[in-house]
Design brief:
There is one protein chain. The protein is an alpha/beta fold. The chain folds into two domains: about 140 residues, Aspartate Aminotransferase, domain 1, CATH 3.90.1150; about 220 residues, Type I PLP-dependent aspartate aminotransferase-like (Major domain) (Aspartate Aminotransferase, domain 2, 3-Layer(aba) Sandwich). It is about 40% helix and about 15% strand. The strands form three sheets. Strands 2-8-7-6-5-3-4 form a seven-stranded mixed β-sheet. Strands 9-12-11 form a three-stranded antiparallel β-sheet, with helices on one face. A two-stranded parallel ribbon has the order 1-10. Helix 5 links the parallel strand 3 and strand 4. Helix 11 runs parallel beside helix 13. The relative contact order is 0.16. The mean pLDDT is about 95. The structure holds pyridoxal-5'-phosphate. Pyridoxal-5'-phosphate binds next to helix 4. The site of pyridoxal-5'-phosphate (PLP) has 14 residues, from helix 4.
């Protein structure tokens, strides 16, 4: 028997997550240079990181012979203060994707069930299948999560329910009362993960932190990230906010130095740069209005989004993605999400938005508006 036959059977049909393509690679392929490309494929913040974060990284660069603080003391204190939670409500991951993995390791074994929605974030099924557990996919309702149906889909074998709110890739957000009902009616032996990667873009989003801190919902964990509004995707910092008891279990799964020292320093600085966060939110709001009105004018169907990206109906997402790429615009085709007629476009800078808009009109053969 060869080594491939010895692989963990859970890996057999496991797809590899396909990230947005790096600028340099695309530039090489279309014979352009990275500066001329517009990357709107990975929901990154077009403003770039806070200068305070950049300076914090420069300040610690000469200390990189030291191991990082395994407990992320400074970041934990500063985030706990900002969120008004206790330090032991927090667990840090190498991106919030790593928190997903902690949760899976802590709870899942072969044969268990995990409930997700149709059009959910691609990592949930991947992590579930990696553990040999089964995915129960609940049909979406108007492209969003049907939370009452997800509650009903819970089986005796269900260990986790994943809900991204807002959801990626659809940008949909659940009604507050559905979220509250879901939390209230979750069986106590099932973990509810509410992934709030785009929380900070929300205008007056339901605040679930008091519920977490009340201690009455030990089976609820929120996930947030420094990859989106905080503009530090390259550093990989995410965190979970939950009951200290469950957080303690996740700490057993976590590698001691999963959060590197530069990332910790930058995340502290970014947390404290409220102006950068406000500016990023303003830019996103402005882009959202620009896309909304220009799509409406051109008669291009799209979903209303509560995040920093937008799902756009183009009939043939693969073709349009390829043609946009030839024009130097990188977006994300959605066939892997079961949405082959759509593309996902990150809201960019004003210049990037305009270039995307011109290109999409050209590709869809719309008269210039
Ligand atoms: C971008 C995103 C994340 C964040 O991933 P990181 O690992 O923190 O970069 C998590 N969940 C969803 C739904 C996302 O879209």
């Amino acid at each position: 028997m060869a080594l491939p036959d010895q692989l963990n059977p859970a890996l057999r049909d496991l797809p590899v997550y396909k990230p947005g393509r790096p600028l340099r690679e695309v530039a090489l392929e279309i014979g352009s240079s990275p500066e001329h490309l517009v990357k709107l494929a990975s929901n990154e913040n077009p403003l770039g990181p806070s200068m305070r974060a950049v300076m914090a990284m420069q300040n610690v660069a000469a200390e990189m012979h030291r191991y990082p603080d395994g407990n992320a003391f400074d970041l934990r204190q500063c985030l706990a203060k900002k969120l008004d939670v206790q330090p032991d409500n927090l667990v840090f991951g190498n991106g919030s994707n790593e928190i997903l993995e902690f949760v899976a390791h802590a709870l899942l074994k072969p044969g268990d069930d995990v409930v997700v929605s149709q059009y959910c974030f691609a990592m949930y099924p991947i992590i579930t299948k990696m553990m040999g557990a089964n995915v129960i996919e609940v049909p979406a309702k108007e492209y969003g999560h049907d939370l009452p149906a997800m509650l009903k889909a819970i089986t005796p074998e269900t260990r986790i329910v994943f809900v991204a709110n807002p959801n990626n890739p659809t940008g949909t957000i659940a009604q507050d009362r559905d979220i509250k009902q879901l939390i209230a009616e979750m069986p106590p032996d099932v973990l509810l993960v509410i992934d709030q990667a785009y929380f900070e873009y929300g205008e007056d989003t339901l605040d679930l932190l008091p519920l977490v801190c009340s201690g009455d919902h030990p089976n609820l964990i929120l996930m947030r990230t420094f990859s989106k509004i905080y503009a530090l995707a390259g550093l990989r910092v995410g965190y979970g906010i939950g009951h200290p008891e469950f957080i303690g279990a996740l700490e057993k799964v976590r590698q001691p130095f999963n959060l590197n020292a530069m990332a910790q320093a930058a995340a502290v600085a970014a947390t404290n740069d409220q102006l950068h966060i406000e500016t990023s939110r303003d830019q996103n709001r402005k882009s959202s209005i620009y896309f909304g009105t220009s799509f409406k004018r051109a008669g291009i169907r799209h979903l209303r989004s509560a995040a920093n990206f937008i799902l756009v109906y183009v009939e043939d997402g693969a073709r349009v993605t390829a043609e946009l790429m030839q024009l130097g615009i990188i977006v994300r085709a959605m066939d892997v999400y079961g949405l082959p007629e759509w593309i996902r476009v990150t809201l960019g800078s004003d210049m990037e938005n305009r270039r995307f808009h011109q290109a999409i009109l050209q590709v869809l053969d719309h008269p210039e508006d």
